[in-house]
Amino acid sequence: MTNVNLIDHPVIQTKLTELRDFTTDHRKFRTLLDEIAGLMVYEVTRDWPTTPKIVQTPLERMTGRVLSRPVTLVPILRAGLGMADGVLKMLPDARMGHLGVYRNEQSLEPVTYYQKLPPDIASTEVLLIDPMLATGGSGSAAVSFLKKAGVTSMKFVCLVASPEGIQTIHRTHPEVPIYTAAIDRELNNKGYILPGLGDAGDRIFGT
Ligand code: PRP
Ligand code: URA
Asked: Where is uracil bound in this sequence (predicted)?
C-alpha cells in the first residue's frame, strides 16, 4: 500500500503486544502508549527538513542542524491524548491543537464536538495523532478540518490501523502519509479493529 509507513520495530512491537493484552490495566496501558508514541517520533520525523545553525562547543564553533519548521501536535480527543505526552517528550517545543471527534456508536459516523488550533498552524509541520484508525471516518474528518485551517504538511500517526481505515484515508486524502505500528486484519460489524486492542479511550482512561 502506498503512503503507509509500518513502523515494525522490535521494541515497539514488544510494547504493543503487551498493550493489546486484555489483562493490561489502564495504568500500564497509559505508560506503554506513551513510550510507543515517543519511539514512533523517530521514524515519523525522519524526512523533516533541517536548517544549518552555528553552535559554539566548548572547543570550537561548528555548524549543526535544527528542524526548519515549528511543529504542531494535534491529538484527536479523547484517545489521541494518550499519545500526546510521549510525542511531546521528543518534540518539547511543539505547540498543541485539539480536535474533539467521536464515532456515533450506531452509524459509526464521526461527530466533531470541539476544536482549538494554534493560529499559525498553517506554517507548521503537523502531526495528527490517534491510536486507532478503524473505519477512518474520524481521521478523515480531522484531516479535512486541518486542511480548512490551511495545513499543507501533515502526517497521520496511529498505533493500530485497519485495512479499511487506510483505504478511507487514501481515498479522501491520498497525499497524507499514515504512520502506524500495526496493520490489523479487519473490522468487525461494530467497527472494532480485529484483533486490535479494544476501545482505546476506555482503556486509557479506565471508563
Ligand atoms: C476512537 C479512536 C478514533 C476512532 C477511530 O475514538 O480513538 O478516534 O474511534 O474510529 P474510526 O476510524 O472508525 O472513526 P472514539 O470514537 O471511541 O472516541 P473516544 O476517543 O472519545 O473514546
Ligand atoms: N476505536 C477504538 O478505540 N477501537 C477500535 O477497535 C475501533 C475504534
From this structure: 193, 198-200
